[in-house]
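Hi R.,

Here's the chain you asked about this morning:
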Amino acid sequence: MSLCQKASLLLILFLLVSCQRTLNRNEFLIAGTYLEIISPDPRSARIVYEEFLRLDKIFNKYDPDSEISRLNKNRSISDASDELIEVLELSAKIGDLTSFSFDITCAKLYDLWKDIIGKQAISFPHPASVSAAKNSCCKRCVDIDEKNNRISLDNKNTLIDLGGIAKGYMVDEAVERLKEEGITSALINAGGDIYCLGKNRGKLWSIGIKDPEDPGRFIKRLDLSDAAVATSGDYEQFFEYKGNRYSHLINPRTGYPADSGVVSVTVVGRSCAVADSLATAVCIDGMKGLSDTIFKKSYASSIFIVKIIKGEQRLFIIDSDSKVKRPLADSDE
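And the predicted structure, written out as tokens:
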């Protein structure tokens, strides 16, 4: 099985772009993430790949020498990069915006559930373990001194997990590097976190949102330019326990798997980091977690939610002007 075929099993978004000869299409696997670059400019792949390698040294929690690993281990660092500071500050903003259904300080809680995700669980974690891990979350315990590039964790039990935002941020930064080099047309796809730079030879880039019940078809086609799109969902990552199906997404407020009934959320906006984190938050909280501020401050331009209602799958399209609900079978392609 090729790299592209392997990755297609993981992607929630898929590209409606054929492999035309006039486009350069390159695929990489970096830090466990499938990275795809499509562009008429042959320089794009190298620029994006090198930027991902650079940022991986900051955000890769599995690398003991990365900045995030050193912060978690030592509780503080005095040589923090501007990039890490920016992501931590943005994470705090998204946390406030979502009433902290997006919370980067819950690494211990997320790790507690990680071992049983995607397989038959013998048992849930003990309630006392869940409570202890949940208590390690401390949304106001990340202290940032920008002037001295110093970051410290004020709670000795708190660990940081940037898995819901770092990948999107890396896409955003790679786009900036392309712009600096005068490249005006490219599509970057990092495991489903996508940015469409410019146009595809004069036409909009086309992205399809997968049908959670039938991944071979799409339920909505998005035609985009200079826009980010990210999807979060539980239909490809979940676990079963006592005959019930549970999401791999953990609600940091309850300490248990999300039960919003949402199976897929796709966010379109200007920033892939913001789209990435918002998609996760809305998947956890459902539509009740949507704030008008998301649209008023242009954090997102539109949000597509697939939810199960009385056994029927429905698509909700939400933006600053309207809230539309219709059966999946009637949705536009």
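The longest helix spans residues 44-59.

Let me know if you need anything else.
M.
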